[in-house]
Structure formats: C-alpha cells, structure tokens
Design brief:
By secondary structure, the protein is mainly alpha-helical. The chain contains seven helices and three strands; from the N terminus they run βααββααααα.
C-alpha cells in the first residue's frame, strides 16, 4: 500500500529551493509568534497545545482512499477553526518539527518546505475559506462546522499544489513536474474527503460541548495585529 504523504524527505528538493522556503517559513513563524497573543486568552491557550497533540496523534493513523493508497489527517483547517490561523501555524510547525526530529517523518533539510506547505499555505488558505464560508452559511454552530469541513477538504490539494510548485522549481527526481502535479493533486483530492470527515466530526463535537473554545465560533474572526 502506498501512503500518500506531504512530508518531503531530504534530497527530494534541491538545497537552494529548500533554503528559500526555509527563510519564508521562518518569516511567517516570526509574524505568528508576535501576533498569536492577541488571538488567545487564558482559556484557549491550553487548547493550542491540545490541538497540536491531537493532530500529532491523528497523523499517525492512516486511512485508505483508493486501491493501494492511503493518507492521514493534515489538520490545517481543523487547527485554524479551533485556535485561529496564527496559533494553528505554530501548532502545526511544532508537530512537523517533532516528527522530523524524532521520527524521521520529513527530512530536516526539507523542514522549511513542509512547514510552508502545511503550517502556512494550508492554514492560511483554510482561514480565508473558512471566514468567507462562515459568512455565507451564517454564524450558527452548523454553519461553522460546514465551513470548516469545506475548508478542510480544499486545504489538502492546496498543500499538494505547494509541494508540486516546489518540485517544479527544484525537484531532484526524474519524474516530470506535470506528472507529479497530476498525481499529487488527484490523490490528495481523495485524501481531502477523509480530512473533511474528521474535521466535521471534531468541530461538531466540540461545538456541542464547549463552543466557547472554538475560535471560529466567536463573533469576530479578523486577525488582530
């Protein structure tokens, strides 16, 4: 069985492109570190840590998506809906760092690439989609859950596109960028279905019990600087 993962290993993308996206990732992380305090309070701060732990554990579980292919939770939209985009960026960066350092899941030289695709690109696209869809579906609990679910589905092929772009710029493999893009987006569009289901169940459950802990259910969703 093939496990379709977005965690890029060492040597798959050349060093100059890896370094470029490493610098971009550091810049976004620095911004999130400066601004995350405005989005969290004494009750929601612990939720950021719990979110990181949950996503870390959930990413260890693979689910089948097609013959010979499986995937796992990405968690970008889920984290964004729960704790906001800045905290989600930091939480997912911690998850990716631990996975690379302790489990060799994604290369250390490729950490900036993985952080950019998952902690930044997927998170911020999720945030923009979520805030837009939340206005369309109304500010009810069901509307928030549906908005998060759609954002979760879209976030997965978006992250795959990020990888495909990086591969086109500096891929070390012999496979053409067009072939890689087609395979990655096609496979991750299927994986997005599992992502959407997990996100819907998780957000709906938390909204039913502690809606005050869901960042996306608060009246104001704008990111404060």
């Amino acid at each position: 069985m093939i496990i379709a993962k977005l965690h890029i290993p060492d040597g798959f993308i050349n060093i100059p492109i890896s370094a470029l996206f490493g610098v971009l990732s550091i810049a976004f992380i620095a911004i999130s570190l400066r601004r995350v305090g405005a989005a969290l309070d004494d009750r929601t701060t612990p939720l950021s840590g719990l979110t990181a732990v949950f996503i870390f554990a959930a990413q260890m579980i693979n689910f089948p998506v097609a013959a010979g292919t499986s995937g796992h939770l990405l968690g970008a939209a889920l984290a964004t809906a729960l704790v906001g985009p800045h905290a989600a960026t930091l939480a997912l960066t911690v998850v990716l760092g631990v996975q690379a350092l302790l489990f060799a899941d994604g290369g250390l030289s490729a950490l900036g690439l993985n952080v950019f695709n998952i902690s930044i690109l997927a998170v911020w696209v999720s945030h923009l989609l979520f805030t837009t869809l939340r206005k369309i579906f109304a500010k009810s609990k069901s509307g928030v859950a549906v908005a998060a679910t759609i954002a979760a589905y879209i976030s997965v092929p978006i992250a795959a596109l990020g990888f495909s772009f990086q591969y086109a710029l500096g891929g070390a493999g012999t496979i053409s960028a067009t072939t890689v893009t087609s395979a990655m987006v096609g496979t991750h569009s299927l994986i997005g279905l599992g992502e959407a289901l997990i996100t819907f169940i998780t957000i709906s459950s938390i909204l039913a019990t502690r809606s005050d802990l869901v960042y996306g259910y608060k009246p104001a969703l704008e990111v404060r600087g």
